[in-house]
Amino acid sequence: MRNATSTRPKIIRVIDKYDLDGIGDEMVAEWTKPESTRRSCRELAEFFNIRVLDAALREAGIIWDRPLVEECAAIIKDRDKSLTGYDLDSRGVDTDEVGGDMVSYQSIYTYLTEYRDTEYEREVDDIHSRVASLGQIETKTETIAAGIISRSVSHNQVYGAEPQIEVTTECICETCETNTEMSVYLRNGGCPTCSRSR
């Protein structure tokens, strides 16, 4: 490991200390991939911390398989868990020092945006995600409406059995005035009645 100075941001110092040359470029590339395949700052923090531990292990002459390094990195990051059984400190790995060199996802975000001047454009959500969002809204509305009905029944303001609540959002076509469920309208790319008449 190289000697690190305290005047630079932590993540830069840690990269230099553990000879993690190129890891910054890797994280930039992963963070700027299309949204369906990009890695989040939390995932990149885990990636970075695993590489830190792996470098410390190799410096001590310890070569572990990736899954074992991942498991141990998670334990070191979570100071509440015990490292009993790994016996790393007696083998030349200062786990307190390594833990102190691990970074948070906020550090990754700051590094990417401020020190690497990196941005990514969020992709426009597709039709399936919009239909799913609509379904969540309708379900939430049904739950709220069912609660209102239930309270009204319990206060004898509404009589009889509680009704089934079903909420659907409809689109009214300005051309043919047909009512269509919004989810169907979205999946069809417009009014189904008008599209059949074309």
Describe the structure.
This protein has 198 residues and is mainly alpha-helical. It is 54% helix and 3% strand. It contains nine helices and two strands. A two-stranded antiparallel ribbon has the order 1-2. Strand 1 (170-172) and strand 2 form a beta hairpin. The radius of gyration is 27 Å and the shape is elongated. The N and C termini lie far apart (70 Å). The model has no long low-confidence stretch (mean pLDDT 85).
Topology at a glance:
Layout: H1 10-17, H2 23-31, H3 41-59, H4 66-77, H5 95-101, H6 105-115, H7 127-154, E1 170-172, E2 179-181, H8 182-188, H9 192-196
Antiparallel strand pairs: 1-2
Helix pairs in contact: 3-4, 3-6, 7-8
Concise description?
This protein is mostly helical.
Residue-averaged pLDDT: 85
Individual helix count: 9
Radius of gyration: 27 Å
Number of strands: 2
Task: Report the β-strand fraction as a percent range.
Answer: under 5%
Order of strands, main sheet, comes to 1-2
Helix-strand pattern, N to C?
Answer: HHHHHHHEEHH
The backbone outline, from C-alpha atoms, is elongated
Structural class, from secondary structure content?
Answer: mainly alpha
Question: Helix share of residues?
Answer: 40-55%
Our measurement of the CA-to-CA distance between the termini, rounded to an integer number of angstroms, reads: 70 Å
Poorly predicted ranges: none
Please describe the biggest sheet, giving its number of strands, its sense, and whether it closes into a barrel: 2 strands, antiparallel
